[in-house]
Amino acid sequence: MMKTLCALCAAVFSLAAQTIPGATGANWPSYGGTHAAWRYSSLDQINTGNVAKLSAVWAFQTGDAEHGLQSTPIVIDGILYLSTSSNWVFALDAATGRVLWEYRYTFAKGSTPLYGKQNRGLAVGHGLVFMGTADNHLVALDQKTGREFWRVNVEDFKQCGCNITGAPLLVKDKVIVGGTGGDSAHRGYLTAFEARTGRFAWRFYVIPGPGEKGHETWPGDTWKLGGGAPWMTGSYDPALNLIYWGTGNASSDVNPAKRRGDNLYTASVVALDADTGKLRWHYQEVPQDAWDFDSAYEVILTDLEIKGVMRKVLVHPTKAGYAWVIDRTNGEFLTAWKYVKHLNWISGMTESGKLVGRREAEPGKPAFICPSAVGGKSWNQSTWSPHTGLIYVPVVELCNDLTATDQEPEEGKSFIGGKWEMKPPAGGKAEGYLAAFNPVTGERKWVAPTPSWILASLLSTAGDLVFTGDPEGNFFAVDARSGAKLWSFPTGGGHRGSAVTYSVNGRQYVATPSGWGSLVGAFHRTLWQDTPAPRSGSTLFVFALPEAGR
Amino acid sequence: MKFCAVLLFSVLAFAQDDSIATGAMLFRTHCSVAYCHGSAGTPGRAPQLAGRSFTREHLTDVIANGIPKTAMPGFKKELNQARIAAIASYVLSLTGPAAAEPIKLERRDLPPELKAGRALFFDATRMGGCGACHAADGWGIAIGPALAKNLPADAAALRAYQSEHVRRAELQKEAPLPALPVNVGATIVTVYDLSSPLPVLRTFAASEIRLTPNGGWNHAGTLRAFSDAELNSILSFLRALQ
């Protein structure tokens, strides 16, 4: 009894002590829930005690089965905004699913985009809905009518070999967007536009140009097409006025022979002044990447007690199989913990974060490397619950044979410099599971196995639940303190999107995309050949407790 | 006799279809994975396969042995001959005219001096260069005109060029902006706002916008990042496309 009480005290304390508002309430206002990217909701009407009664209340078929439904819905004041892979946008009544307006982006004839048509979400604010498109435009729609307000072509997608799949980040009066292209001969960047007019505000090139600090980490002309694409969505701390963004791998992905040096600021987390885009500090997690280890994933902003002192930190789980914990005021390395079991690209890390025992593929000779180029997790996001004090990660245990080959870059064309062949870990099997970690020590509290793997984002709530979906089509909830499965619903389509929760008129809803897709998702058949392929589709399922049961 | 022939034909057709179906499955698991060829032969990170004419021999060779110095691996260690043949059948089945848009000629072979002009035209290290507003040779964004006819004689003539179509847009809720009209309809007006180095396509209700002459926009401003020698090199490249 004493013990549970104390545990509770600590949890409540840690929530109260947060200097950053990270939890969502009735609304789900942005991609990561809030700009702190917790994917955690303070709603607890649905909780461990009643989740077994959770029922479907409405579903919405988008009709766009291209690459499945990988989106994160945004919910503001009872209206749910949903984007699909072909860049259609729907505004729906969040309590009933009734369509308020819809918008279909039209692609120019013959423009078959690179990296496929995929879309992971929107930003909403200033009376506008913002979306990046598969042919590399940023569009702004009227939030009330869906009428197009402005659009900008960020760069010709044929030239850059890049496009936009991630959700834009709206910070004050600017909308900021990154792009894909980390596997192309391309120089990655973030661009900020004035939200109301679409006018260019600033650009941050991940790779510094001549005369800029960090440029010396690139020999010759390699900086021009060296990768670093920041293709997912960043975070923002209003108190520090800093934007945090994870950057992509250096190119060519698996062959660094021609770019010896640290290759700044690829595979890093960068902190930028929100008004000017100027670099304040950086922390590079994987210098001179040779494994396709993007750091482009979610940047979770929170405050943690480390060695007896409360620190403003960011937690950054990347493809490389570690979660880095960095002081977000100045970029100081605090700690890093391994979240996968199988990891051999380095033999370890020193107290100060220096990588030890690097293993890279020699030209022509396959090297067996864990985790694989898919990453110890894919882009689908983790969740941080200050209520339980745990971070939940969708872990992938998978390795690959990397073979480096000599390749000349051709602007906008594929620039991988070798190949990867997915392999199960030595003596084990390819698997995926949910795991709960102490965010400071990395101690693993529990593991919830799954039939294959988890490529959908996780959602945690104050009801002590963690929600996600599997490729087999089930959307389910586990107990956030034990990992025990408490509820499951077969949606029929594989899960590759991000569930959210919100409330309308006092009733809590949980909404999940359903419908398999994505490039990494295509590996499923290779890894689990004896089971049926995950089903595509594009449906939003919405659940709530029965009215009587409330 | 006739019956037999029909039967034989349909069995063969079935065998062929079956190989295509197997090939389609193998294609999805081996070729259309992780940034390589797109599903159904559309371009992914690697080239488009649909709608192109390949011979079976060439396809079989490339699938088995790969293409040296590129990301295209050989599959002969992982896949037996029958499976490679099935993938080839599938790719060949995509070559019908309806499969996809024909491949456009891009990045034609240019002599080195014209290559330099092309590189300047599309120089990604100078944001807002020619390619941000003009399309040429398969790349670029077609906001301004296709630069084929009436090319200025030299850098000086290009710098002296006066735009004819840019208007001043007077707006109800915003300050005026230099606007290149795209579509002036009775209810909706779309224009490019040229005040941004990446022009913005704006959509207005016709009642919100008034277009008046003299946009106050000067094309010469877009050329500031380029020297005369560079502009002449760009013009030689554009002339070669004519």
List the helices and strands and how they pair.
The complex is a heterodimer of chains A (550) and B (242).
Chain A: H1 2-16, E1 40-41, E2 55-61, E3 74-76, E4 79-83, E5 88-93, E6 99-104, E7 123-125, E8 128-132, E9 137-142, E10 148-153, H2 157-160, E11 169-171, E12 174-177, E13 186-187, E14 189-194, E15 200-205, E16 226-227, E17 235-237, E18 242-246, E19 268-273, E20 279-284, E21 300-306, E22 309-317, E23 322-327, E24 333-338, E25 348-349, E26 355-356, E27 367-369, E28 383-385, E29 390-397, E30 399-404, E31 418-423, E32 431-437, E33 444-449, E34 459-461, E35 465-469, E36 474-479, E37 485-490, E38 500-504, E39 507-514, H3 524-527, E40 539-544
Chain B: H1 2-31, H2 56-65, H3 81-93, H4 112-121, E1 135-136, E2 139-140, H5 155-160, E3 167-171, E4 177-184, E5 188-193, E6 200-205, E7 209-212, H6 228-240
Antiparallel strand pairs in B: 1-2, 3-4, 3-7, 4-5, 5-6
How would you summarize this macromolecular structure in one to three sentences?
With 550 residues, chain A is mainly β. Chain B folds into 3 domains: 2-94, Orthogonal Bundle (Cytochrome Bc1 Complex, Chain D, domain 2); 112-161 and 219-241; 167-212. Helix content of chain B is 34%, strand content 14%.
| C-alpha end-to-end distance of chain B | 61 Å
Largest sheet of chain B: 5 strands, antiparallel
Task: Please give the number of β-strands of chain B.
Answer: 7
| Percent helix range of chain B | 25-40%
| Total E-strand runs of chain A | 40
CATH superfamily of chain A: Quinoprotein alcohol dehydrogenase-like superfamily
Strand order of the largest sheet of chain A: 1-34-35-36-37
User: Can you tell me the CATH topology of chain A?
Assistant: Methanol Dehydrogenase, Chain A
CATH architecture term of chain A: 8 Propeller
Task: Tell me the distance between the termini of chain A.
Answer: 29 Å
Number of DSSP helical runs of chain A: 3
* Estimated structural class of chain A: mainly beta
Q: What is the count of helical runs of chain B?
A: 6
